[in-house]
Amino acid sequence: MSATYDRLIALLTKLHEAPPEDTTPDATYAELDVDSLTLVEIVMHVERELGVTIEDSELHPDLSLGATAKLIDERLAG
Predict the structure, then answer these.
(1) Are 54 and 75 in contact (CB under 8 A)?
(2) CA atoms within 13 A on the CB side of 68
(3) Residue limits of the Carrier domain (predicted)?
């Protein structure tokens, strides 16, 4: 997909130990059993590492990994 997607997967694997075979662009956080605390941690890491702001409400369990990467890329583009 994109460099952002790859960074997101690396972050998710680090924070949640998600199996690489399950981390597809269409996979949602709910399907990966990511809890709300981990979602908040992801937001914090993205903000710190990439310098983009994402509201906690934007990153919800039904959002896919691909959609998250797209959201981050849109914020990076300005």
Answers:
(1) yes
(2) 31
(3) 1-76
Contacts of 59 (CB under 8 A, 6+ apart): 29, 39, 42, 43, 68
3-77 belongs to CATH 3.40.630.30: no
Q: Where are the alpha helices (DSSP H) in the chain?
A: 3-16, 36-50, 65-77
Our measurement of the distance from residue 60's CA atom to the centroid of its chain's CA atoms, rounded to an integer in Å, reads 10
Q: Which two tokens stand for residue 35?
A: 């809890």
